[in-house]
């Protein structure tokens, strides 16, 4: 792969530059035949930039950028008709992508397995997942510690069959032809585990209903 990363973000450490080059090569292998070097590096660079102003752990930025770029490229492939697996795609959106939408994502993924695709995003992404949300989900045997707050992008929204919004108001994106649902749920920011439990259980009920509506077999 040509070293198109040369000169990009000169302020990056040698380790970060190496990590981004490694990520670009890995994505190029995964999307070989679908997207070329220029597209892959553009998505990786823009994904890195979106996290750079938010993250307090710079060493994790290349990994977050790679994960987000991979999701965005998969979404773009669906939008452009380059990837057709017949699986429904659901996108959960809230303000900080740290509580409600992550709980919903956790439930949806847990209940559908590989029978559907679920993503999440926020209008004003936070720094980390709400610890009380993580603990409340762990009580039900669902681990969401690998998730991270992230913004949404046009290709991710366009790829979704259903967009579930939770409190992002006018900031939530709207595209014609996409099914939207608004779940009126309180933001659990600052809550303890005891306070999050009823929200967790309400989101479970709504996710199960959505799965039934989409006729997705339970995992």
UniProtKB/TrEMBL annotation:
Record-annotated Phosphotyrosine protein phosphatase I domain positions: 88-213
One Pfam family linked to the record: LMWPc
Matching Gene3D superfamilies: 3.40.50.2300, Corynebacterium glutamicum thioredoxin-dependent arsenate reductase, N-terminal domain
Keyword DNA repair assigned: no
Keywords linked to the UniProt accession: Arsenical resistance
UniProt-recorded name of the protein: Arsenate reductase ArsC
Native species: Dactylosporangium maewongense
């Amino acid at each position: 792969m040509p070293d198109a990363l040369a000169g990009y973000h000169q302020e990056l450490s040698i380790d970060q530059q190496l990590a981004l080059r490694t990520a670009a090569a890995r994505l190029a292998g995964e999307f070989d035949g679908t997207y070329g070097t220029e597209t892959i590096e553009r998505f990786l660079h823009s994904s890195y930039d979106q996290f750079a102003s938010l993250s307090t752990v710079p060493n994790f930025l290349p990994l977050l950028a790679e994960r987000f770029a991979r999701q965005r490229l998969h979404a773009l492939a669906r939008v452009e008709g380059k990837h057709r697996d017949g699986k429904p795609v659901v996108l959960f959106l809230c303000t900080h992508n740290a509580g409600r939408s992550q709980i919903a994502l956790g439930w949806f993924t847990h209940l559908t397995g590989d029978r559907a695709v679920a993503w999440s995003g926020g209008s004003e992404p936070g720094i980390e997942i709400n610890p009380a949300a993580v603990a409340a989900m762990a009580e039900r045997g669902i681990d969401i510690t690998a998730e991270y707050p992230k913004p949404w992008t046009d290709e991710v929204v366009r790829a979704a069959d259903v967009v579930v919004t939770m409190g992002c108001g006018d900031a939530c994106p709207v595209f014609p032809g996409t099914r939207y649902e608004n779940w009126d749920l309180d933001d659990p920011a600052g809550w303890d585990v005891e306070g999050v439990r009823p929200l967790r259980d309400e989101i479970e009920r709504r996710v199960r209903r959505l799965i039934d509506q989409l006729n997705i077999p339970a995992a």
